[in-house]
Every structure is written in structure tokens, then in C-alpha cells.
Design a protein that fits this description.
By secondary structure, the protein is mostly helical. The protein has 10 helices and 2 strands; from the N terminus they run H-H-H-H-H-H-E-E-H-H-H-H.
Length: 279
């Protein structure tokens, strides 16, 4: 599976290689602070009646499909979700671009909420559904990258996705009353998979349009250029080689020259009406 696009971000004012992840982290912690302030001032009912996800969305409170993702039950809940968002989200954003990353994040989160409402009762809060979608995408994008499961056990990303998927199914099949919205976790992964597969088919249908335009030489000396097909194939080979390196060690380990090659390739592909996500 090969992903890459590096579109200009709408969040560059935040800075860094993954501004959307940073923005989500900031918003989640601000929301948790406001939630805590409301809880100690008697406004907890407002949070659960109007901002948490509940069947009230069928009565018109559809904003809950978004607001519930920024609420958390306690400190450990938000710390776990935000750690996962940072670990998996930053490399996905650097690979896809900020706008596409945010689109995927909210698709998974909203899909997780709808799944919960369709198969469970009650009220749900937390970014876990969106985070499980990120986990799935990370395992599909970087299947052989070694990560620390539970921050202890080294394991390939693709196996970790399988393990968490199995655990989620087991918890749904044998509910323990642990207060965790397992249907939301499953929904985040399922909606993420559907979206990624759709983009994959679109990419496969359009990959033949890939063509990398060589930079004009500043030298006045005229040199014959190789056939266009050879140039495109040579650039595609370079991009695939760099993507394999990302798959093994992560984006952060690329050289400056390798990052520039990917950026140049993605800019050309964006101008060729190619989809932003592909695998």
C-alpha cells in the first residue's frame, strides 16, 4: 500500500509538520478544562444534555456528533486518547496533508458516534472512536513500522490493529459493563476502512495520470531530455523507494532531499486532479 500527498495546509499558522494534530490536542485540552470548570460550578448537566452524544440528535441536536469528541470522562481518558492522537496522527498528517487528515478524523469520529447510537443506548463522550480510526489507518499506511503496544511491547503496526480489532469484537460479543463504548470503537474503524478503500479504488483508477514534470535547468546549455515516460517512471521509482522507507522507519527519518522529492511529486499529482488519500 502506498500513500502520499503533501498539500498546502490551512493550519500553517500553528507551525510544524503536523499543525492539525497540534490544533486538535489544544482544543481537546481546552474543552476538558472548560468541562472541569462547569462540573465544579454546577454545569455538568449542561455538558451531558447538550454537548455529549445522545439520542437527542434525532430531535435536531446534530452538533453533538462533533462536540462529543472533545469531551472526556477523566484525566486518564483524555491523556490516553491524546497520546494515541499524537503517536498515530502526526505521521498520517505528514503523509496525507492537514486538510485530508482532518477530514478523515471527523469521518471516523462521526461514524463512531452514529454506530454507537444505532447499536447502544445512553450517552457517550470521548475521541476514542476517531482515534481507533487513526489506528486502523496507521496500520494500513505503515504496516511494518515497529511501535510500542501499550508503550511496552514492540510490535508491527499491522498486528496491533488486528489485536485491537479482535479485542473490540470480543468486548461487544461478551459485554462486561465496563462503561466503555466498544461499538463506537468498532464504528470508527469500520467507517475509516470504508473511506480508505474508496479512496484506494479511485487512486488505482487514476494512477496512470501520474506524470512528474522536470524542473527547468537554469543553465543556458541545452541538453536532450529522456522520453517523458522514462522520466515519469524514474520519479515514480524514487517516490516508491522513499515511501517504503517511511513504511519501515517513519517520516521523521527522511532526509531533507527525500522530503523535497515527495513534496514535488505530491504537488504535481494535486495539479493532476488526483485524490488526496491513496493506499
Amino acid at each position: 500500500m502506498r500513500y502520499y500527498t503533501r498539500n498546502q495546509s490551512s493550519f500553517q499558522f500553528i507551525g510544524g509538520d503536523y499543525p492539525a494534530v497540534k490544533m486538535l490536542l489544544i482544543l481537546n485540552f481546552i474543552a476538558y478544562l472548560l468541562q472541569w470548570l462547569l462540573s465544579i460550578t454546577g454545569g455538568e448537566n449542561f455538558v451531558y444534555n447538550y454537548l455529549a452524544l445522545s439520542p437527542r440528535i434525532w430531535d435536531g441536536q446534530i452538533w453533538q456528533l462533533v462536540t462529543y469528541m472533545f469531551l472526556h470522562a477523566d484525566v486518564w481518558h483524555i491523556l490516553f486518547n491524546m497520546l494515541a492522537l499524537w503517536l498515530f496522527g502526526k505521521e498520517l498528517e505528514m503523509t496525507w496533508g492537514s486538510n485530508e487528515f482532518l477530514k478523515y478524523y471527523f469521518i471516523c469520529g462521526i461514524g463512531a458516534g452514529l454506530t454507537f447510537l444505532l447499536f447502544s443506548k445512553g450517552v457517550v463522550i470521548g475521541a476514542s472512536g476517531a482515534v481507533f480510526g487513526l489506528l486502523l489507518a496507521f496500520g494500513m499506511t505503515f504496516p511494518n513500522q515497529i511501535i510500542l503496544m501499550s508503550l511496552i511491547f514492540p510490535i508491527k503496526a499491522k498486528y496491533m490493529v488486528i489485536i485491537y480489532g479482535v479485542i473490540t469484537f470480543m468486548n461487544i460479543a461478551n459485554p462486561s459493563g465496563d462503561g466503555v463504548a466498544h461499538f463506537a470503537h468498532l464504528g470508527g474503524m469500520v467507517f475509516g476502512l470504508i473511506y480508505l478503500k474508496k479512496e484506494w479504488f479511485v487512486f488505482k483508477a487514476n494512477r496512470t495520470k501520474m506524470e512528474i514534470k522536470p524542473k527547468r535547468s537554469e543553465s543556458k546549455e541545452l541538453r536532450p531530455l529522456p522520453p517523458r515516460e522514462d522520466r515519469s517512471e524514474a520519479m515514480r521509482s524514487k517516490v516508491d523507494s522513499i515511501l517504503d522507507k517511511i513504511n519501515e522507519v517513519g517520516y521523521d527519518h527522511l532526509t531533507k532531499e527525500e522530503k523535497e522529492i515527495l513534496f514535488e511529486a505530491s504537488q504535481h499529482l494535486s495539479n493532476s486532479d488526483r485524490p488526496n488519500i491513496k493506499h
